[in-house]
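[step 3/7] fold_predict: job queued, chain A
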Amino acid sequence: MTITETTRDTAHPGRTKIAPRALDRVVSAVTADTLGVTAKTVSVDLADDGGSLSLTVSTPIRVPSLDRIQNGTDAVARTGGSVLDRAKTAQETIRTRVQALTGSTVTRVIVTITGIDIKQERRVK
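[step 4/7] structure written:
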């Protein structure tokens, strides 16, 4: 008997419930990873949307310094585009990753950018 057969034979019908605090932590971590900030700076509001999840996240976003942008480097393109472009991309990334991690259906993700985290230049020694 394989592990899959054993699991299937001993599985009990029912439902699995994920606590709202656990969902909050997952969404915070995914958002932080997506936008390059720490999870403690992300605020999450979960709502029921007809049995599915609706997420509202408020977060800063990591951006390159103005010096890097003014020096003519392609810093904006390398970081994923403008702040608006990155926020739009983050919506879909957050939705798909949260669905994959939790098994919940996410119908809506609203991203509110609350500030910026400037990525400082490091000098090469």
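[step 5/7] annotate
The chain is about 40% helix and 25% strand.
The longest helix spans residues 83-102.
exit 0
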